[in-house]
Amino acid sequence: MARVTLDRVRKIYPNGFEAVKPCSFTIPDGEFLVLVGPSGCGKSTLLRMIAGLEHITEGTLGIGERVVNTLDPADRDIAMVFQNYALYPHMTVRKNIGYGLKNRRVSASDIAAKVEDAARMLNLTDYLDRKPSQLSGGQRQRVAMGRAIVRDPALFLFDEPLSNLDAKLRNQMRIEIKALQRRLGVTSIYVTHDQVEAMTMADRIVVLNGGRIEQIGTPSEIYHRPASTFVASFMGAPPMNLIRAQIDAEGLHLGDRTPLAAAPDHYRGAVTLGIRPEDVRIGRGSATFDVTLVEELGAHRLLHGQVAGQAFTAHVLKDTEVSTGALPIELPQAALTLFDHQTGVRL
Ligand code: ATP
Q: Where is the signal peptide, in residue numbers (predicted)?
């Protein structure tokens, strides 16, 4: 088990590109931390530096009590699970799972016992003598997990491990990996661009944007108190509505002077107003929602259209009466998040 500490860890590639700006955070022992962000935000680079697969340009990386900046991957006491599983095609499941132990002076009988244990945990007992080509995608992913588990590492690193699976299997494996991590209590860092995976699996989330940390927090903090419009629009599907608004002495209003709420006392001027689609109240209120499309999703519906000429979405439960056309809506004050309209930072 181990705590992981990053102190101003930075990556500049040889071509001069700064892929990770100085990043500092600590992952307590046993935490499941998710690094999330759009393509190119630097999450794989950060994970690869922790794994020892990429040189750290500046800063200090600690795993447990040790500074590991210059240690080889094999000496860092980590196990990594990749998106392509990296299984050996000519070896059985049994051999694949046990492979990493062979060079570690573990006796054959101990290897056999550890492999059997991991297989039981992962429901792979019936498949131990098969080759990877005879397995489903989910089973291959479990073999990759098994290989990580038997090494009994201080730290698990996951690099988009579910991205090659179909949506249904991804949901199932997400729950399995999380449950397994809880059971083993091993500190874990998990990279994904999928905000649903981040929300559902993480104890804490690090949102990266352009090589920089936008926010670190629990899923609930990230969702309900996004630090910026970037986080607000990246997390949540559909994302938070972001519309231009004004605050003056009379209160908070939209461009057409639709009054929305009392003015917060600490701010005057233009703002970006954020509200989650599920927080919009339909059928009463002072604002008008021009609904152009109703999307039927079974348990709920999404209404798409415009408020004060700006794109807007509301989420309603299936029993709510709705139609296209002008609908009165209320944006409850407690559900509003205000952002600086220029920098996008939460006010
Ligand atoms: P994805 O989800 O697409 O894998 P990512 O967030 O994991 O993206 P990284 O792979 O960490 O992003 O890359 C971060 C940035 O660094 C990207 O702009 C990428 O083009 C750049 N980059 C990656 N490897 C190198 C390299 N060897 N030399 C120069 N730039 C690189």
A: none
